[in-house]
Recover the amino acids of this structure.
């Protein structure tokens, strides 16, 4: 909870348990937060919030918080929310059209084509960049060594599902935020399939980098189906943002017939744009017949390349089995509102569905994961999470389609409970041994040994009277990353069990014996980068904070090394003494005195209380003429702002933003000088803090009498316009949705919309996350959004996409290297990229 002491574990990792919405709300506190100094290398007790949920919850809430004209009443139908991110009680959410994401991507594609210079050379299909042009270059991480696992296995970013061809050599990975990757050598190496420049501006398929499900034709592994949108985050999205469109949902179904060289968008009715996919099951006798479990219902595909809704609701699991002349599909429906969770089957290719078995224990049943052998329609297993707590509700077995469901006792603690809650809505996986229907594997969140590895259990099923029991359960996930999203065997091979999780892909080659999972992440460059830190003169040294994979560092090249645990946030390198580095994770600032090159050497730890997951940590801009300024650091913690003059050795008494809860929380900070700091908040207020003597004078700017800021909503970044010699001018950008006026400039007196003049020069109505202003070129401004990086050479009067070679993952941070003229971007799903400045 906020203000509690959370020392670091020996692996630099905080505890693994996740938050219920009640606990997130409970961590807020009133009054100033007092930073707590923690002992170096003190053991971190298990904390009640961390990991994927704790990163995404505030991010997703911010993503579609409502933007509105200043002073305008809220529109009808806008839902109120109680938010862990914004303290203002009037914070609102903007309902969104389901097609808004797809429409924005299509417009972005059109703008990219229009931005190409006349006479530019032709672009080969699949090329990642424009030949001879100025292009983005990937800097990694292609993998992170010394990862956040037992044994320090190499890690990648979050992966939702795998599709494995017979033999196990060809493997497709559907990553949560980075698109589809292919391995042709059994996951020894990987390459991305969604980075090609799209010649057709009306085709958005290669922009569909948010993936929830994937399946292939076993007879032709070049035919692959992908369900876009990450279903595993449904409970988070729907419970926290009250029906608004989540930040990263899908654009529908796509397929490839050539192993990912080209992608084809397939129609759906009702339209699956704005929804997410959990699972796909391909009919083994007819690859054109596919069943999908989605957040919008159970869908069926036919040869007409049309997906049609069969049943409304939420369907988190779909499996198929074929044997004895029978092909049977099973699906599970997740209880929503008054509809109970249930299990259905179809023996006619999915045309008709009937409840499977009798006596299924639906009381408090929430999400269900189904398991069946591909060659045998029975038995069927159902791994069920509690609807109310996310903990284990039960494990059940159906021996024939008209039989009674039988409970299975002695189930191990796959979903550990903390303060009455677990996360079965996010981590729930089951696999059946291909040769032995009485041997199953269960996957969940984590197990307790530091650093809290994956919860994966081998369970032998034995009769126990009229029911069954788990005999000799064994934990086998020790060396895999926590938060398991799927367990899958290589077809027909009991000795190859695959795991996808928040740390990428892991493989166990002897799961029936004493085998352990090993990392298969080399080249799986789908790390969810959040923020960047740079060495001031050596461009090869970089830090990035990663979702659920801590903080990673590189000294050169695409291979990075894990140096600090938890959910990585801001990273700051002392530009006068690069041996000193600060990183932020889960409410705490850590300091290294050895350049941050390893997990050792973090000499001081400060706890600020966990107000927002992205609490900003900033320092004045690089200025060799004033090396003392490099030791100045500011941290925003709720409505309080702390400043240190000795690089986090000590902190001055904080100043509190005026206005109480109505001011929101500090979400964006930027130093104009050692004595001037700008602050943007979660509800659209902007402040300037000027140091006079030992006190900071706070001036509110968003309501400037010369011309007020025209929007209210989340201010996601603030950047100083250095062309103003008085250092009174700034740019701000907005998150949220509902208004395309995303970038504004304040000239010290009044605000002006700098989002383009409209039409083809205007910014899109999508989340804008980061700003950068070129200090050497007045008027050169860059903004990172959920769809691309955009550039203006006239102070925001007109914008165009700066797209060449940049994957379409969301851009969370932008920084200009102070000495090398490089613009760098942190992509939440594809790592770090850079492009030379003109």
């Amino acid at each position: 909870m906020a203000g509690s002491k959370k020392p670091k574990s020996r692996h630099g990792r905080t505890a693994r348990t996740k938050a219920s919405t009640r606990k997130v709300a409970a961590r807020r506190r009133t009054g100033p937060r007092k930073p707590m100094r923690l002992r170096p290398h003190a053991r971190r007790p298990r904390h009640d919030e961390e990991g994927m949920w704790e990163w995404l919850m505030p991010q997703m809430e911010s993503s579609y918080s409502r933007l509105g004209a200043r002073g305008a009443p809220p529109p009808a139908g806008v839902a109120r929310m109680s938010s862990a991110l914004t303290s203002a009680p009037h914070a609102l959410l903007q309902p969104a059209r389901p097609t808004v994401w797809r429409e924005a991507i299509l417009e972005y594609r059109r703008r990219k084509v229009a931005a190409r210079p006349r006479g530019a050379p032709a672009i080969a299909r699949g090329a990642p960049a424009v030949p001879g042009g100025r292009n983005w270059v990937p800097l990694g991480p292609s993998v992170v060594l010394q990862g956040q696992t037992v044994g320090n296995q190499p890690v990648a970013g979050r992966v939702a599902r795998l599709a494995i061809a017979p033999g196990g050599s060809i493997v497709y990975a559907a990553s949560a935020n980075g698109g589809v990757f292919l391995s042709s050598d059994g996951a020894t190496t990987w390459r991305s399939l969604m980075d090609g420049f799209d010649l057709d501006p009306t085709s958005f398929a290669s922009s569909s980098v948010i993936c929830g499900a994937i399946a292939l034709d076993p007879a032709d592994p070049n035919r692959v189906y992908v369900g876009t949108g990450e279903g595993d985050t449904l409970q988070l999205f729907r419970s926290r943002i009250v029906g608004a469109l989540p930040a990263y949902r899908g654009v529908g179904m796509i397929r490839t017939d050539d192993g990912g060289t080209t992608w084809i968008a397939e129609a759906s009715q009702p339209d699956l744009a704005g929804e997410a996919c959990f699972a796909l099951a391909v009919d083994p006798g007819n690859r054109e017949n596919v069943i999908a479990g989605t957040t919008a219902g159970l869908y069926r595909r036919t040869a007409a390349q049309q997906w049609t809704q069969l049943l409304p609701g939420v369907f988190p699991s779909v499996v198929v089995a074929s044997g004895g002349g029978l092909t049977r599909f099973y699906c599970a429906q997740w209880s929503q509102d008054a509809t109970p969770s249930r299990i259905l089957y179809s023996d006619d290719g999915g045309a008709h569905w009937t409840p499977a078995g009798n006596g299924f224990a639906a009381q408090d049943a929430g999400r269900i994961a189904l398991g069946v052998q591909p060659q045998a329609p029975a038995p069927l297993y159902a791994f069920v999470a509690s609807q109310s707590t996310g903990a284990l509700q039960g494990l059940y077995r159906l021996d024939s389609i008209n039989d009674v469901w039988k409970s299975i006792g002695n189930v191990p603690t796959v979903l550990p409970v903390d303060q009455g809650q677990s996360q079965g809505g996010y981590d729930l996986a089951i696999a059946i041994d291909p040769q032995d229907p009485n041997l199953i594997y269960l996957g969940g969140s984590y197990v307790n040994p530091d650093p809290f590895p994956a919860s994966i259990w081998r369970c032998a099923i034995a009769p126990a009277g009229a029911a069954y029991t788990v005999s000799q359960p064994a934990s086998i996930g020790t060396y895999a990353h926590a938060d398991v999203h799927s367990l899958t065997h290589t077809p027909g091979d009991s000795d190859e069990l695959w795991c996808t999780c928040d740390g990428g892909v892991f493989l166990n080659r002897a799961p029936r014996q004493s085998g352990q999972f090993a990392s298969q992440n080399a080249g799986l460059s789908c790390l969810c980068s959040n923020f960047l830190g740079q060495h001031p003169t050596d461009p090869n040294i970089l830090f990035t904070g990663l979702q659920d994979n801590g903080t990673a560092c590189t000294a050169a090249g695409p291979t990075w090394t894990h140096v600090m645990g938890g959910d990585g946030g801001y990273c700051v390198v002392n530009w006068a003494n690069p041996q000193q580095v600060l990183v932020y994770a889960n409410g705490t600032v850590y300091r290294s005195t050895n350049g941050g090159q390893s997990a050792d050497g973090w000499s001081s730890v400060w706890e600020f209380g966990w107000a927002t997951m992205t609490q900003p940590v900033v320092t004045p801009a690089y200025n060799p003429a004033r090396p003392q300024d490099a030791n100045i650091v500011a941290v925003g913690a709720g409505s309080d702002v702390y400043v240190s003059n000795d690089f986090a050795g000590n902190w001055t008494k904080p100043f509190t933003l005026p206005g109480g809860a109505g001011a929101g929380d500090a979400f964006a900070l930027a130093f104009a000088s050692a004595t001037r700091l700008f602050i943007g908040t979660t509800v659209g207020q902007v402040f300037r803090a000027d140091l006079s003597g030992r006190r900071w004078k706070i001036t509110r700017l968003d309501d400037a009498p010369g011309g007020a800021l025209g929007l209210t909503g989340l201010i996601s970044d603030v950047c100083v316009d250095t062309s103003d010699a008085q250092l009174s001018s700034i740019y701000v950008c907005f998150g949220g949705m509902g208004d395309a006026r995303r970038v504004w400039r304040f000239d010290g007196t009044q605000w002006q919309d700098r989002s383009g003049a409209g039409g083809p020069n205007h910014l899109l109505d999508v989340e804008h996350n980061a700003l950068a202003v070129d200090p050497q070129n007045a008027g050169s401004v860059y903004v990172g959004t959920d769809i691309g990086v955009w550039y203006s050479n006239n102070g925001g009067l007109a914008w165009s996409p700066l797209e060449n070679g940049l994957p379409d993952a969301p851009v969370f941070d932008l920084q200009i290297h102070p000495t090398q003229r490089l613009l760098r971007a942190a992509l939440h799903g594809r790592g770090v990229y850079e492009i030379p400045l003109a």
Remarks:
- The first helix runs from residue 21 to 26.
- The two ends are 47 Å apart (CA to CA).
